Amino acid sequence: MNNPSLKLIKDLEKAGVRFIACGQAMSFMNVKEEDLVSGIKISLTAQTALSGYQLKGYVLKSIHFENR
């Protein structure tokens, strides 16, 4: 499939952004590793990746928008 975001993804990777897919969500949605853009890592669960980064000093900031 032609992915219109591929250039953006590659540019962000060059800038140091890391993409990590949630393996649990992939399993639920029947997404295979070969369906992902090359270079994207897979974590067992999103919480596994998030807690690992929080232990390294990163902060998770959730932003919620209200419909007005």
Q: What does this molecule look like?
A:
The protein has one domain: Hypothetical Protein Ychn, Chain: A (3-Layer(aba) Sandwich). 37% of the residues lie in helices and 9% in strands. The chain is built from three helices and two strands, in the order αβαβα. Strands 1-2 form a two-stranded parallel ribbon. The longest helix is centred in the last third of the chain and has 10 residues. The termini are far apart. The relative contact order is 0.14. The mean pLDDT is 91.
Helix and strand layout, with pairings?
Blueprint: H1 6-14, E1 20-22, H2 23-28, E2 41-43, H3 46-55
Parallel strand pairs: 1-2
Compact overview of the structure:
This protein is mostly helical and 68 residues long.
Task: Identify the notable features of this structure and list them briefly.
mainly alpha; Hypothetical Protein Ychn, Chain: A
